[in-house]
Amino acid sequence: MRARVEELSRQYGRPTDGEGWSAEQHAAWQAAWSEWRQAVGVVQDAITETAAALGEPRWAVEMALRAAAGRPDTPNTA
To answer: What's the pLDDT tens digit per position in 13-44?
Structure first.
């Protein structure tokens, strides 16, 4: 899902460049963005619930998940 947002961003360029995005381009990008954000929200909620159930810090659970997924980068602290 995130890849689709990035693909559209590369394909369309910056929305402020030139004449900007068409209404169709904006709608396609917004739909991809919304889908990705919705999926991220589900994962973030699951991390929070799992941390509470385990009695572990949320960041530790997210870091373990990222490591298991092969993405040992910093957690989303937002």
So the answer is: 988 888 889 999 999 999 999 999 999 999 99
Burial letters for 1-28: b for 16+ Cβ neighbours within 10 Å, e otherwise?
eeeebeebeeebeeeeeeeebeeeeeeb
Which pTM was predicted? 0.68
Angle between helices 58-68 and 23-54 (to 10 degrees): 110
Phi-psi region of 71 (alpha: psi -120 to 50; beta: other; left: phi over 0): beta
Residue 47: other Cβ atoms inside 10 A: 19
Amino acid at 50: T
